[in-house]
């Protein structure tokens, strides 16, 4: 399980975009979004740096959080 803070995620459309970006790396990952804290949890076999890169490419500023 990986956690990320996505500073510019603030609406349902953003949540969908973030989910789509992460699932574009691997369709088997599960993404849980918490808009109030602007955090996502990713479950699956993906490298944290690839998640951050995919989110940045999609226009979101993200950083990995401790487990």
Whole-angstrom Rg: 10 Å
Distance between the termini: 7 Å
Q: Based on Cα principal axes, name the global outline.
A: globular
- The residue fraction in helices comes out at 25-40%
- Secondary-structure element series: EHEEHE
Which percent band covers the strand fraction?
Answer: 25-35%
Runs in which pLDDT lies below 50 for 5 or more consecutive residues are none
Structure explained in plain terms:
The chain has 67 residues and is an alpha+beta fold. Helix content is 33%, strand content 28%. It contains two helices and four strands, in the order E-H-E-E-H-E. The protein has helices at residues 12-23, 48-57; strands at residues 2-6, 30-34, 39-43, 62-65. The chain has a four-stranded antiparallel sheet with strand order 2-3-1-4, covered by helices on one side. A hairpin with a 4-residue loop joins strand 2 and strand 3. The longest helix is centred in the N-terminal third of the chain and has 12 residues, at 12-23. The model has no long low-confidence stretch (mean pLDDT 95). Keywords: Metal-binding. InterPro entries: Heavy-metal-associated_CS, HMA_dom, HMA_dom_sf. This is Heavy-metal-associated domain-containing protein.
Task: Pick out its properties.
Heavy-metal-associated domain-containing protein, HMA_dom, alpha+beta, HMA_dom_sf, Heavy-metal-associated_CS, metal-binding, 67 residues
Can you give me a brief rundown of this structure?
It comes from Methylobacterium ajmalii. By secondary structure, the protein is an alpha+beta fold.
């Amino acid at each position: 399980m990986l956690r990320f803070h996505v500073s510019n995620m603030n609406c349902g459309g953003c949540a969908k975009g973030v989910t789509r970006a992460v699932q574009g790396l691997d369709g088997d990952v599960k993404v849980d979004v918490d808009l109030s804290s602007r955090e996502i949890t990713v479950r699956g076999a993906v490298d944290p740096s690839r998640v951050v890169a995919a989110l940045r490419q999609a226009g979101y500023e993200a950083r990995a959080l401790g487990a």
